[in-house]
Structure formats: structure tokens, C-alpha cells
Design goal:
Blueprint (H helix, E strand, L loop, with lengths): L1 H5 L3 H14 L4 H13 L3 H14 L4 H22 L2
Helix pairs in contact: 2-3, 3-4, 4-5
Length: 85
Amino acid sequence: AQAYIKVENYGLAINDATAAMEADPTYAKAYYRRGSAQYALTHYKDARKDFRKVCQLKPKDRDARAKLQACEKAVKEAAFLKAIE
């Protein structure tokens, strides 16, 4: 999945990470990578779910916590922009 993210092929990254998660539901990197791809595609709510799972699996992962906060902010901003339209 990381290779697909590097070349900005986020759809394949999501598929690859999802397959890895199905093989091992405790593999935090798969959730992180799928969340990163979802975030890049502006699917902030889906990304937030994945980063929450990473934080649950690896509570001391600072980067995952930072990404989760970025998702929370993006979701709130999107809701605000939708409300003022």
C-alpha cells in the first residue's frame, strides 16, 4: 500500500491495505496506510475511523494521533463549509 501512496495511486493503496487488514485485523500499518490514502482523497470520515483504530492498536503512536487530529479538524471544517452554503 505504501508504494501506491508514494505514486499517488490511492485507490489501489486502499484495496491493498484492506486486503492486509482482512488477513491480519491487528496490523496497525494497514489501517494507517488506508487512512492516509482516504485522507488524500478527502474522505475524512473514513480516514478518521482508520486513524482511530491505529490509536486503539498503538496508543503511543504520536504520528497516528496527529493524523487523527487532522482528520477531526477536516471533518469539522467540511461540516462548517456545508452549513454556510
